Amino acid sequence: MAVPSQETPAVRISTPAGRWILLTTVLGSSMAMLDSTVVNVALPRIGRDLDASLAALQWTVNAYMLTLAGLILLGGSLGDRFGRRKMFVLGVMWFASASLLCGLAPNAGVLIAARALQGIGGALLTPGSLALIQASFHPDDRAKAVGLWSGFGGIGGAVGPFLGGWLVDGPGWRWVFLLNIPLALVCVPVALRHVPESDAGSAVAGRDKEPAGGRPRRSFDVLGASLGAVALALVTYALIEARSGSVLVWVTAVAGVAAGVGFVHVERTRSDPMMPPDIFASRQFTAVNLVTLCVYAAFGGFFFLTALQLQVVAGYSPLQAGTALLPTTALMLLFSARSGELAQRIGPRIPLTVGPLLCAVAMLMMLRVGKDAVYVSDVLPALLVMGAGMVTLVAPLTATVLASVDTGRAGLASGINNAAARVGGLLAVAALPVLVGMGPEAYRSADAFDSAFRRAMPLCAGVLVVGAVLAFATVRRPAPDCRRPQCRTHGCVTTPPLEPQRVAAPGKLPS
């Protein structure tokens, strides 16, 4: 197969080569997206089989989010430097190997370590899959290819809870992770055979050339990424273990804050930082990321606790619990594009205010879900309102992020926003059980868990209200010529869509 150069990408979406590229990138990104949603449904069974505490279940979720959030920006830079296909394939293989370790884990400690390794693989393959599309397809086909990538990936995220429930009820929770191995066995050979290599400066990875347009090749900020990940890890540990009140917890918390200060210092002093501080000179960009932090913190806490509430308290099987959550993601898949079009007409301020308020109402409606809850009258109404709220806010959120910065930095802005959402979910899963007095064995007792759940939902709703007020006070209509999102269809409840970096035309800098 002829390999198109970075300067003149020639693959059309209607050709066999185009379909192969889409197949492998969708398969790869779906692996990471599935694991961000599927595991929650398996948590009670994992806890029972491995005799794990609630803290271990929190780490099972957070170890993955921690490394993914901390390294996703670095993952894109590594692809630019060493070759996007190379990093994508490495990410898929890494992810599959870590998934195998998860599936074979003999205890909670090994499972948590393997989940952290999964996150590293996800940080390589998620931005790599999108970068491959941008670098390989003809400019006239890029938007459509990104849209298909986003739509099919959204379907993968949407079916995650259902698939997870079916696997847990059937062959067992270990197959939630082992399922990634056959996907990787398809994805890697297809990528090596049919996907052209590309990096920032040439079609062949590793050549030390400048990118199109003559700009110097971006370096990668390993120190910044490491400090950011360490800060998140230490703060997360301190939050999860805060109920013990030990000296170690306080030392860890202080060390986490110190690592965070070090991260900010490195980013301010590096010539080419992973997260350039001057991007936050835009007040609207800063404000929208704070809204994102609030909104996705509430979502992270909600979906973590709801999957447990449906099983521990309401008596649902894993399959029933996974199926119960489908309406929310189905609504997002069906109507997210239309929501984006509406926001373009009326501006993002109203959707970003109304959306979080609808989600807050849904969380209060979840207080009806207790023992012997009836799905149609107790669970479904809340999830439909939740889906309506998420439909209302997610597409305008992404559009506002892209509109808040120069067009040439839209991909970076989207990456930061995506990381902010993951950090919000990470901190919520770590802090919420402590804040509502959920003990280490609470998930083994229906009464204890139900009591804590009823304290948690109003707290999550309150965080959403804060996000709505912040959006109403700060968000303004973007300029008419700003960049619009290419990922118009979205079905993931844990993060906003990741937008591609714009590829410059031959001999030109990105506008």
Automatic annotation (TrEMBL):
Membrane topology term: Multi-pass membrane protein
Coiled coil regions, renumbered to chain: none
Residue ranges crossing the lipid bilayer per the database entry: 20-43, 55-75, 87-106, 112-133, 145-167, 173-192, 222-240, 246-266, 287-307, 319-337, 349-367, 379-403, 415-436, 456-475
GO molecular function terms noted in the UniProt entry: transmembrane transporter activity
Keywords recorded for this protein, A-Z: Antibiotic resistance, Cell membrane, Membrane, Transmembrane, Transmembrane helix, Transport
Main localization category: membrane
Record domain Major facilitator superfamily (MFS) profile: where: 21-479
Listed GO biological process terms: response to antibiotic
Record-level GO cellular component terms: plasma membrane
Xref: CDD domains: MFS_MMR_MDR_like (cd17321)
Subcellular location as annotated: Cell membrane
Name of protein: DHA2 family efflux MFS transporter permease subunit
Organism field: Streptomyces fagopyri
